[in-house]
């Protein structure tokens, strides 16, 4: 598949997906959504990819839905959405929807937020595994100022990241939040100077690619996302089952061997 609204690159075990409509601050389109999905499917299927970085071209990360599309929807009074095909049918049903499918991608997704993230751009960030921010980035939900509501699971996920009252603040007011505040309230995990953001994010992603068992990352990611829906007993039972399975794997044997032999690991993912 050739891409028009994104760029896609794989190097050193890291897939990079770049939203590529810089003249529109990477405003969201149905084409962009389909291309991101395709790039994630390619990344998931490629054993050489160990981590995924999602970022934007130019000054913005994603300014939300393209206003042309919103104007058309406003005129019609409705939005036609095709049925969504689950990324991983074996994942829990909660992850079978637009945006919420990102947790079912079996590799860590790290957002490198280079600029404004608004509306759908913010919604997408919430379901990435980690969020690294430029010190120039700003965050805004936008929905209430467009006469809309907290869509695509943002009410559920934002509450878990920043807490109930802070989520209400951000959603009700649709006010702009700078990078420093976003970090303070837990919306983003790290903040870097704008000119080093991508390099710092890639260094982190390459560390995962080079030093971590891809089988472990796959299982741990699913454990932690599923744990949001589980009680402690269920989470413990699943951990016991996964630990027993891990002890039988080549990656476990390699994890012990490289530590004892004081060399770089050579994990295969099984």
Helices and strands, with pairings:
Blueprint: E1 6-11, E2 14-19, H1 30-45, E3 51-56, E4 60-62, H2 67-76, E5 109-113, E6 116-118, H3 120-126, E7 130-134, E8 138-140, H4 154-162, H5 164-173, E9 177-178, H6 179-184, E10 190-192, H7 197-211, H8 214-227, H9 232-246, H10 250-261
Parallel strand pairs: 2-3, 3-5, 4-6, 5-7, 6-8, 7-10
Antiparallel strand pairs: 1-2, 8-9
Helix pairs in contact: 4-5, 8-9
Q: Which blocks of ≥5 consecutive residues have pLDDT under 50?
A: none
Mean pLDDT across residues? 93
Morphology: globular
Number of helices: 10
- Give the beta-strand count: 10
Structural class: alpha/beta
Helix-strand topology string = EEHEEHEEHEEHHEHEHHHH
Across the major sheet, the strand order is 1-2-3-5-7-10
Strand content: 15-25%
CA radius of gyration is 19 Å
Tell me about the largest β-sheet: 6 strands, mixed
The percent of residues in helical segments reads 40-55%
Gap from first CA to last CA: 29 Å
Explain what this protein looks like in three dimensions:
The chain is of the alpha/beta class and 270 residues long. It contains ten helices and ten strands. It has helices spanning 30-45, 67-76, 120-126, 154-162, 164-173, 179-184, 197-211, 214-227, 232-246, 250-261; strands at 6-11, 14-19, 51-56, 60-62, 109-113, 116-118, 130-134, 138-140, 177-178, 190-192. Strand 1 and strand 2 (14-19) form a beta hairpin. Helix 4 (154-162) packs across helix 5 (164-173) and helix 8 packs antiparallel against helix 9 (232-246). The two termini are 29 Å apart. The model has no long low-confidence stretch (mean pLDDT 93).
